[in-house]
Amino acid sequence: MQWAQKRGSHETEFDFLAEARDPRNNRVMGTLRDTITVKLDSSQFEEVQQRSLVYQGGMLLAPGNYKLKFLAREK
Known about the structure:
Number of strands: 4
Largest sheet: 4 strands, antiparallel
Helix content: 10-25%
Order of helices and strands: EEEHE
Radius of gyration: 17 Å
Shape: elongated
Structural class: mainly beta
């Protein structure tokens, strides 16, 4: 990941996009779009270098079967 150093902290942005489609007719049944900025101080940055970041988001869907596409990118 490309972390920018700003005012003694490390910072980056992530875009997330999810799309749930009905597999029978390929109609979009739900979407999620989110952009987050992550700012870490030096001690947190060292810890993240050894571990993973976790993103949590959601969408409400009626009961059924869906085809899910998910995209995550660093800006």
